[in-house]
Amino acid sequence: MRAVIIEAGGANFGSLLAACARIGVDAQLADSPNAIRNATHVILPGVGAAAQAMAALRERGLDRVIETLTQPLLGICLGMQLLFERSSEGDVECLGVLPGEVRRLPAAPRWPHMGWNTIKTTRPHALFDGIGGDAWFYFVHGYAAPANDAAIATSDHGGPFAAAVARDNVFGMQFHPEKSAAAGHRALANFFALA
User: 57 is in which domain, residue-wise?
Assistant: First the structure.
């Protein structure tokens, strides 16, 4: 397995690398198109704002690489949001590999959404194999993707949003699996088990 984590600035790579190591995956940071194309599994993490993250990807030409990947691709938090067509955060065009627009979460009950929350699976998927329906996941975000047809799990914070998505080889987790204890580590291991 050649797993890479796209290094496009602003992400907490240390905790994600450590989470991968705990499940036996030696993931490497990568910011070159060739390293990303040659990986068996690709993770697009993200912390920060959509406009800055997209600018960093475009500056390195990684936006064009991501759009053409056929191996399993996992977006985490902002990385998942970037997989959609647009984000109202900065009114920016994103990667467009998933349909829909990321929008600001409601101010109530509080903004941003920070902390532990449950999810509700909308259809069975291998990403959640072995994870019980009462599992909690850790979220830190102020914007969210719509709970549309790509969603395989939703959560609620002032209204429903996509907690996890899947379409073909593209997957996303709005929660941070690397900070979500056993349930998050299992979801991450399930991603690496996808061929």
Answer: 3-192
Which residue among the candidates 41, 113, 157, 176 is catalytic per the annotation? 176
Active-site entry in 20, 41, 157, 178? 178
pLDDT in tens, 115-146: 999 999 999 999 999 999 889 999 999 999 99
User: At CB < 8 A and 24+ separation, what contacts does 102-108 make?
Assistant: 102/50, 102/143, 102/144, 102/145, 102/146, 103/143, 103/144, 103/146, 104/142, 104/143, 105/141, 105/142, 105/143, 105/144, 105/157, 105/158, 105/159, 105/161, 106/157, 106/158, 106/159, 107/158, 108/158
Q: Which of 20, 41, 77, 113 is catalytic?
A: 77
Active site residue 176: yes
Report the predicted TM-score, pTM, of the whole model to 2 decimal places. Answer: 0.96
Domain count, the chain: 1
Tokens of 65: 């690489």
Does 77 participate in catalysis according to the annotation?
A: yes
The angle subtended at Cα 30 by Cα 178 and Cα 139, nearest 5°, is 25
* Structure confidence at residue 195 as a pLDDT band (50, 70, 90): confident
**pLDDT, average across residues 19-24:** 96
CATH number at residue 86: 3.40.50.880
Is residue 94 among the annotated active site residues? no
